[in-house]
Structures are given as C-alpha cells and as structure tokens.
Write a structure and sequence with these properties.
The radius of gyration is 23 Å and the shape is globular. It has 482 residues and is α/β, with parallel strands linked by helices. The strands form 6 sheets. A 7-stranded mixed β-sheet has the order 14-15-16-13-12-18-19, sandwiched between helices. Strands 9-8-7-10-11-21 form a 6-stranded mixed β-sheet, sandwiched between helices. A 3-stranded mixed β-sheet has the order 1-5-4, with no helix packed on it. Helix 3 runs antiparallel to helix 5 and helix 3 packs antiparallel against helix 6. Strand 2 and strand 3 form a beta hairpin. It binds adenosine-5'-diphosphate. Adenosine-5'-diphosphate binds next to helix 9 and helix 10.
Length: 482
C-alpha cells in the first residue's frame, strides 16, 4: 500500500504523531493508501512555514508578474499530469474517470486565468476634500490562507482557492478531505517543479476536528476558504468570526430545476437527469428538486424515468459507466436513510429506492438512481441536502407558484429554468434567490464566472475577477504634500 507524506516548507515530512490512516476505494471497498494523520503540531508547523514565506524571502519579494508566471507554469504541469491525478482521484472518490479527466484537463485554466490577473491588481488615487494631502490605496494579500476542501472534486476545488490566493500574493495551508487526500499530496509536488518558493503552499491531512479546527483557530491564519457541508461551514465561520478572520464559505444546496410547459422537453429531461445523477448526485449544485409545470408534468415524469432507467452503473474507471458508487460509507448510509424518510413522508417512489445490487456494482457502495414523484416542498426530502442520486419531483401551476416553491428553502446555490420564452427566463432569473441561475442548461461553471451562494449556501464568491478580492485587503496611504 502506498504511504504518503506531508508537504511542509518544501519538505516531505512525517506527521508529528507518527500515525497514518487508510484511504479506501469506493468501488472495491479496499484500502489502497496510507495518509498522514496530522494533529495541531503539524498544523502549527505548516502555518509557521506559510507565515514565514509570506513575511520574508523570495515570495514576499516577488513582483506580481513573476507570481503570474509561476501560476502559468503550474497550470502547464497540471495539464501534463492530468491523467495521473484524475486516476488517483477516482481511486479515492469513485467518480467517473471520464468526468475526472475532464475536470483535471480544465483545472489548468484556473491557474492561467488568475496568473493573468496577478499583475492587474490595482489601487486607486483618491479625490480628497483636504488641501495639502495626497492619498492612495494599495491592495495587499490578506495573509496566510487556510483552504479546506471536500471529497467530491479535490483538485478542482483546491484550484478555485489556490489560484486567486496565490495571484493575490497570499500563502496557503491546504487541508483536503480525509476521504480523498492522495491527489492533493501528489499535486503539491508540482509547486516545487514550477518554482514556487518553499512554504508558499503546504498540505496537512487528517480529520476535521484534529486538523481543520486547529487550522481555522491558528492565530497566524487570516483567511479561511472552505467548501463543504453547511453544518461544518457554520461551525468554521463562527470560529473564524471570533478572531475577525476573513471567510469564504461554499456550502450546500437544494437547487430547483424548473421546467415550464413551453420548454424543449428533450433538452430539459436530459438536463434534469444529468443535473441530479452526474457525479452520483454528490455535487453542491445537484438539481435535486425538479419543479414541473402541470401541463407537461406526466410526460416529463415518464420520459425522465425512462431515461434514468438506462443509466449504466459500474466500475468508475470504465469510460462506459454513467453512475458510479457513492464516495464514503457514511454518505451511503445517509442517502439510504433519506430514501426511507421520503417513503415514510408519503413521496411516491417512481424509480430505484435502495442499494444497487447489480452484478457490475461488485462490492462498491452503490445506490440506485432514485426518483420520487408527488413530493411536497415541505417534506424533508425537498428541504435537506441528500448529496446522492435522489431526485424529488414537485408540481407547479404558474410562474408565481414556481418562484414561491423554488425560494422556499434555506439554500440558494443554483437554480435552472427551462423555457422558450425569453421574457419568462429574465423574470425568473431576477426572482430566483440563487447565486447562479442557468437558463436552458444545467451545471455550467467556468473560471471566468463568479460562483457562490445566497442564504445558507455560503459567503463570498469564487471564480471570475471577484474571486481575487476575497484574498486582498485594502490599505489607504495618506501623504502630507505640504
Ligand atoms: P463533506 O465532506 O460532507 O462536505 P464536511 O463539510 O464535514 O463534509 O467536510 C469538508 C471539509 O471540512 C473536509 O476537509 C473536512 O475534513 C473538513 N472539516 C470537517 N470538520 C471540520 C472542522 N470542525 N473544522 C475544520 N474543518 C473541518
């Protein structure tokens, strides 16, 4: 079994406590790697290294253009190693190899885009109402960043944080999920190859409470950037707030996918299926509530069930597979529990509804693609994030009804509208309480387009030009010009 080490201050080191834990493959259920089990001592070492790199030495001295160049080189190296890194991720999270390769091929663009932005960070000369003074603003890195990532897309979501943080001149301690740490530990080596000075990016691994919590609490950390569940995000945000730390939170969702009578139904049904079943429903943007207008309700349901039935389950390493296993045993149990809750609450089971026992699923943690009809929006299955392949279908009458149902949830990450009426698309996009609204598409995301949540789905924005501001602080300089 492969035993990994930590990367701190440009060195491979063992965890202070000399302990490792096993990472399992969700398809075979077997352990395949040993990951360092860190504690607060390792966190302190990593944060001290990041702080030293921030406050002195080559990184602190570097021009913004030089930082941008390093980010470009890093992007090239990720592109070179994309296949290898994708395979490591699939071994850990069981997502489809085709999807992970696509993701890893796209990741370099985050480093190119933010590398390009690095030397376009500008302050301003200020107009003043005082004679004899001149004032200007400078944008400075916010400080040491704690970046905490989840298991569903480890290196993509790390890029969303690292690329703008490094472009801004920050240094980083990165903590991947305990379920999927291997790809991050392989990736971090590329920083040396690209020429980043030691200590600019450090990785610690282990459990949230042993490692994540001391990292958030460490007094030298000035910014926390988190992607994960809303329960953990709430806790971390409270911890960060006690020390007035900056925080970006990208949390859960219960995104409505709204199909109107006038939609292109084939497109909408395809969007609904990929919206919920891609990545086995384990994405924050999963379209887990399908709102269907009365007039086409029965037809959509019929087409949807027919399409979802054809989904090929099996080995995530096969290019043929369409639905893979669930990433972790606790997640597997949680999804099955939610399915029972929905049945007991009176939702009508239309497809699936339990563990997948098809021969091609082997010993993996598989859940059948599941569809519930006649769901009421106040049922738990419509209000809580399942993070699995479970779709709830809810009927609506008209635009006002759709808006009321769509917004009647504490999350607000994303929403989609399927219609041929441009006026309706605009009205809906204005009224939906969500950080992203898609019209006649689902799941589109880019390094160029800001992404983040309304309501309980989070704070701050990742991607696009706004993202870099999350890693900067403003300084005003006054000069007495006599
Ligand atoms: P999920 O994996 O379901 O999104 P979490 O939100 O708990 O679940 O995990 C996201 C990330 O947050 C992981 O890297 C995890 O280790 C980390 N984490 C969990 N608990 C804490 C905590 N108390 N403090 C800091 N990080 C945590």
């Amino acid at each position: 079994m492969k035993r990994y080490q930590l990367r701190i201050a440009g060195q491979w080191v063992d965890p202070a406590g000399g302990a490792w834990f096993e990472s399992q493959n969700p398809f075979t259920g077997e352990a395949w790697a040993e990951i360092p089990r860190c504690d607060a001592r390792d966190v302190d070492r990593a944060v001290q290294a990041a702080h030293a790199a921030l406050t002195g030495g080559p990184w602190a001295e570097m021009t913004a253009s030089q930082r941008g160049l390093l980010l470009h080189r890093l992007g090239d190296l990720v592109a070179r190693d994309a296949r290898k890194l994708a395979a490591t991720e699939v071994r850990d999270n069981g997502k489809l190899i085709a999807e992970m390769q696509g993701q890893l091929n796209y990741v370099p663009h985050w480093y190119y885009y933010f590398g390009g932005l690095a030397d376009k960070i500008e302050g301003a000369a200020l107009p003043l109402d005082k004679k004899g003074y001149f004032a200007f603003t400078r944008k400075e890195p916010v400080g040491v960043v704690a970046a905490i990532t989840p298991w569903n897309s480890p290196l993509l979501l790390a890029a969303w944080k690292l690329a703008p943080a490094l472009a801004a001149g920050c240094t980083v301690v990165l903590k991947p999920s305990e379920f999927t740490s291997a790809s991050t530990l392989e990736f971090v080596e590329l920083f040396d190859e690209a020429g980043f000075p030691p200590g600019v990016v450090n990785v610690v691994t282990g459990l949230g409470k042993d490692v994540g919590s001391p990292l958030v609490e460490h007094p030298l950390v000035r910014k926390v950037s988190f992607t994960g569940s809303d329960a953990t995000g709430r806790m971390i945000n409270e911890q960060a707030a006690r020390q007035f730390k900056h925080a970006s939170m990208e949390l859960g969702g219960k995104s409505p996918n709204i199909v109107f009578d006038d939609a292109d139904l084939e497109q909408a049904v395809f969007g609904a299926v990929s919206g919920i079943f891609a990545a086995t429903g384990q994405t924050c943007i999963a379209g887990s509530r399908l709102l269907v207008q009365d007039g086409i309700h029965d037809e959509v349901v019929e087409r949807l069930v027919a399409l979802a039935k054809t989904a090929r389950m099996g080995d995530p390493m096969s290019m043929e597979t369409q639905v893979g296993p669930v990433t972790t045993p606790p997640q597997y149990r949680k999804i099955l529990d939610y399915i029972e809750v929905a049945k007991n609450d009176g939702a009508k089971l239309l497809l699936g509804g339990g563990p997948a026992t098809r021969p091609e699923c082997g010993k993996g943690w598989f859940v059948e693609p599941t569809i519930f009809g006649e769901v009421k929006n106040d049922m738990r299955i419509a209000q809580e994030e399942v993070f699995g392949p479970v779709l709830s279908i809810i009927r609506f009458r008209d635009e006002a009804d759709a808006i009321r149902i769509a917004n009647d949830v504490r999350f607000g990450l994303a929403a989609a509208v399927w219609t041929r009426d441009i006026g309706r698309a605009i009205r809906m996009s204005e009224k939906l309480q969500a950080g992203t609204v898609w019209v006649n598409t689902y799941r589109a995301v880019s390094y160029m387009a800001p992404f983040g949540g309304y309501k309980d789905s989070g704070l701050g924005r990742e991607n696009g030009q706004e993202a870099i501001r999350e890693y900067l602080q403003n300084k005003t300089v006054w000069i007495n010009s006599g």
